[in-house]
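Hi there, hope your week has been kind to you so far. Please have a think about how the structure follows from the sequence. I've dropped the whole record in just underneath, so have a look:

_____
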Amino acid sequence: MNKRHFFFVLIAAVFVTGTHSSYADEDVYRACTNLVYGYAYHRDQFNADEFANLFTEDASLTVVGQTWVGRTDIRQRIEGLKTGSSIRHEMSTIRIVPVDDDHATGVSYATIYSAPSGESSVSSFALMGEYHDEFVRTAEGWRISKRVLVQKYTSQR
């Protein structure tokens, strides 16, 4: 192979590798973003099984200073809330950063509204904060391995 031919092969390999990497990043972003939206939806609907399955078997979830570890504890948390207030998570800014082929981190903003059971009006949001996430690729697909809600603002109701 002459130098010119080698040069073109090298350039093509770099281009293909770079293209593949960006597609992979898009897949990670899409999968992890869907987990963020799934969390909000299944939490608000009290879908304990679907909610818990967004996490790895040994995941941790920390909300307002309480931590649940493992799918079973995370599922039981949601099951225990079914008779409580109505809640809605409004997710906005979502930033996903691939770390390597099997790990990513993320930050997403949430405004959370809640009302007592049976009520349909709220005077303000209950909490505004950020979810800080660690994601991992598993045999089941991408899952949340760690999620921490960092409170930024509360309502002055």
